[in-house]
Structures are given as structure tokens and as C-alpha cells.
């Protein structure tokens, strides 16, 4: 059924509730990040300040990732997610208060900036729990035989929210200002907490409750490094995202190079997500499990080319098209990677494996933002973006040459085995 029915996962009521929850969370998170990027650059006019935002999030995210995975595998997932959302609401409320006109008027720029960085730091700590919890919850809602279909729709929802979040941020910054835009974010977070109450508590499938922390962490890391398909996919994507982090410099392109203002900034920020979202919808009808390794290599190579074109462009529509196709290629990469993780990870280790993945891939977004900010400061904005795209191409070529087993990766047999198990 899962081979022929592109809506298999959507026929499960609780999964639809989960998608609504994830949409609200990602919309709020991506919109908040865009508003903060705009506010920080407006305060400082320094590209390095954008890199510092990424650094402030990656430090706690990396340091807590493995420990968070251990906790997720030991705890009930629904209630743990509720706690994460509640704490996220405190961050959103804090950012809303920091942009209150009276506070902006009375406080120094550095004080406001440091408070924003502190809340971003707390958000990085919190984000280390979000990823593993959501990844584990999906597997408790849908049967194994439709994991690939569920991964596609979940990733598509993530991308849809990523499309609307930045675009809405750009429009709202212009229409109602940064302050009330952050109020809107806070409302979305509270809405997601309400939606979560419609999902039932789930059983804890880990047979080793109370396992010593270090032993648990060692087991999770060992599993990832032993499973070559998982290790290859997340390593390749990590390096590509690390050096292809041009989106962190979009405020500079929008304000100083393309000169398109906040509305153009929203369009630029949304363009990659639009491309990825449309690609993911297509994969629901056209599965890409056959020759997955070569498709992943090709997708990330195309991503690198798009980043180079964007960096060299001084024409707005060319920049938008380049970012759109960077999203198309990134969408293919994301679906393949999520399918690999869902299929090859046992239930009792999902939290830890997802945490290792977040260390490789999720945190590389913020580390990539920091790398882009530093290289832009040293080389200039355009040179930094072209350099990042070139490094992505070299990474793909090197991986293809040194890892023939990854080039031959095919997921069809794994999917068929899961269908037999169900």
C-alpha cells in the first residue's frame, strides 16, 4: 500500500495533528530567526554580528546534543515535547520584550544585543532536545511500512513553514515592525502547545531505562559510526551546509548589494524553501529510494553550483532563481537523508541517533552562519559565498571518489524489509 499510496501517512489522524504542530513550530522558529537577523544587523551593520548569532546557538546545541538524545530515549516523548515548547515560549516572550519601544529607547545598543545573544544561546540549548523528540515521536505515530512516506510529508511540512515563515517575517517587519512581529511568533508558539494536547502519550520503547549516561551515549555514537549509510549521508550534508551557508548573509545582500529592502529579503529567504517544498511534494509521488547514493551526491553538487551563481549575481531575479534551485537540490538531499535515518535506526536508539545527526547537520547551519560571517568579514561578502559553494563541490567530488560503497547505496531492499515486518 505504501508503494502506491502517496497519502498513506496522511490517512492517520494523529499524524495530521503532528503535521499541524510541526508547521506552527517551524513557522514560529524560522520567522523569529529572520526577525532577529534583521534586528541585529540593523543595530550593528556588521556582518560578523550575523555570524555571532549562529555561534551563540551552536555552542549549547553541540555541547548538549548527545546528552539530550539520551534523555529523549529515556522519557515519554509527548510530555517532553510539551516542556520544550513551553520553554520556547519564554524565549519568544523575552525577544518580544527586548524590542519594546521604551526598552529600545532607554537601553544601550550593546545591552539589547547581548540580551538577544543570551536568548539565542538558551534557544540553542533547547533546540538540542527538539530534534530528537520530534524524530522519535514520528516513529511512534506511524507504522514502519510507511516511514518513507511519513518522512516525506513531515519534511514537506517543515519546508512549507520555512517558505511562509521568512516571507511573512519580511512582510510583517515592513507592515507592523519588529516588535509586533515577535508578538505574532509568541502567539504561534502558544498555539502549537495547544495542538500538542490532541496527541496521546506514547510508550517508552527503550528496554534499558536507567542505563548509565556514558554507556548510553557511547552506544549511540558507536551505532552511527558503524552504520556507513547514516554516517556517509550526514557527513556529506554537514560539510555542504557548513560551506554553503549563504543564507546567513542574506540581510547584507538585501540591504547593501541587491538593495531590495525587507520585502525582497523575505523573498530571498523564502526562495530556497519554496524549491525544497515543491521537490518534496514531488517525491511523495516519485520515490527516490533507487540509487539513493548517487542522487544524494548529485543533489549536493547542484546545491554548490546554485550557491556560486547566487554569490556572483547582482540581479535580483537571478539571485531568487539560484536560491530556488538550491532549495530544489536541498529538498532531494533532505528526503533521502531522513529516509535513511528512519529506516536504519532501531526504535530504542532514535533519540541518540537523531542527536548525533543534529551535531553533524543541524548544528552545521549555525556553524555555517558563523563561517559565512567570518569569511565575509575577511574576504568580502561575494567572495565568501563563492568560496563556500566551491568547497561544497570539492566535498562532493572527493566523497564520490573515496567512497564507492556510498555511490552504490540503494534503499529499496530496506523499505521492502520494513513492509514485511509490518
UniProtKB/TrEMBL annotation:
PANTHER family: ENTEROBACTIN EXPORTER ENTS, INTEGRAL MEMBRANE EFFLUX PROTEIN-RELATED. GO terms for cellular component: plasma membrane. Its main location: membrane. SUPFAM superfamilies: MFS general substrate transporter. Signal peptide: none annotated. CDD domains: MFS_MefA_like (cd06173). It is found in: Cell membrane. It is a multi-pass membrane protein. This is MFS permease. The chain crosses the membrane at residues 15-36, 48-68, 80-100, 112-143, 163-196, 229-254, 266-288, 300-325, 378-402. Keywords: Cell membrane, Membrane, Transmembrane, Transmembrane helix, Transport. It comes from Xanthomarina gelatinilytica. InterPro entries: MFS_trans_sf (IPR036259), TM_effector (IPR010290).
Amino acid at each position: 500500500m505504501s508503494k502506491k499510496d502517496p497519502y498513506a501517512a496522511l490517512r492517520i489522524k494523529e499524524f495530521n495533528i503532528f503535521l499541524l504542530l510541526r508547521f506552527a513550530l517551524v513557522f514560529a522558529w524560522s520567522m523569529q530567526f529572520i526577525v532577529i537577523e534583521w534586528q541585529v544587523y540593523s543595530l550593528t551593520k556588521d556582518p560578523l554580528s550575523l555570524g555571532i548569532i549562529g555561534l551563540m546557538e551552536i555552542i549549547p546545541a553541540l555541547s548538549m546534543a548527545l546528552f539530550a538524545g539520551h534523555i529523549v530515549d529515556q522519557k515519554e516523548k509527548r510530555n517532553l515535547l510539551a516542556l520544550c515548547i513551553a520553554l520556547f515560549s519564554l524565549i519568544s516572550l523575552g525577544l518580544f520584550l527586548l524590542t519594546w519601544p521604551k526598552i529600545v529607547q532607554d537601553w544601550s545598543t550593546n545591552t539589547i544585543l547581548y540580551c538577544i545573544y543570551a536568548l539565542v544561546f538558551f534557544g540553542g540549548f533547547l533546540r538540542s532536545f527538539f530534534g530528537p523528540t520530534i524524530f522519535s515521536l514520528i516513529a511512534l505515530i506511524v507504522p514502519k511500512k510507511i516511514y518513507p512516506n511519513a518522512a516525506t510529508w513531515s519534511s514537506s511540512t517543515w519546508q512549507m513553514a520555512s517558505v511562509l515563515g521568512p516571507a511573512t517575517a519580511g512582510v510583517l517587519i515592513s507592515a507592523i515592525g519588529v516588535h509586533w512581529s515577535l508578538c505574532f511568533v509568541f502567539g504561534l508558539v502558544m498555539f502549537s502547545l495547544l495542538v500538542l494536547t490532541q496527541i496521546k502519550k506514547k510508550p517508552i520503547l527503550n528496554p534499558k531505562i536507567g542505563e548509565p549516561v556514558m554507556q548510553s551515549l557511547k552506544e549511540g555514537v558507536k551505532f552511527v559510526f558503524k552504520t556507513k549509510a547514516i554516517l556517509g549521508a550526514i557527513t556529506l550534508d554537514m560539510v555542504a551546509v557548513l560551506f554553503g551557508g549563504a543564507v546567513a548573509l542574506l540581510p547584507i545582500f538585501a540591504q547593501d548589494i541587491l538593495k531590495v529592502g525587507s520585502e525582497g529579503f523575505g523573498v530571498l529567504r523564502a526562495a530556497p524553501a519554496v524549491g525544497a517544498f515543491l521537490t518534496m511534494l514531488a517525491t511523495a509521488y516519485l520515490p527516490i529510494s533507487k540509487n539513493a547514493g548517487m542522487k544524494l551526491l548529485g543533489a549536493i553538487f547542484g546545491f554548490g553550483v546554485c550557491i556560486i551563481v547566487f554569490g556572483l549575481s547582482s540581479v535580483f531575479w537571478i539571485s531568487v532563481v539560484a536560491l530556488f534551485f538550491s532549495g530544489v537540490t536541498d529538498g532531494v538531499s533532505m528526503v533521502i537523508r531522513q529516509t535513511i535515518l528512519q529506516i536504519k535506526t532501531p526504535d530504542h536508539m532514535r533519540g541518540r541517533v537523531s542527536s548525533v545527526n543534529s551535531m553533524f547537520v543541524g548544528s552545521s547551519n549555525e556553524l555555517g552562519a558563523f563561517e559565512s560571517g567570518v569569511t565575509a568579514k575577511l574576504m568580502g561578502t561575494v567572495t565568501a559565498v563563492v568560496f563556500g559553494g566551491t568547497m561544497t563541490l570539492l566535498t562532493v567530488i572527493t566523497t564520490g571518489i573515496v567512497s564507492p560503497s556510498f555511490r552504490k547505496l540503494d534503499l529499496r531492499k530496506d523499505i521492502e524489509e520494513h513492509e514485511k515486518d509490518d
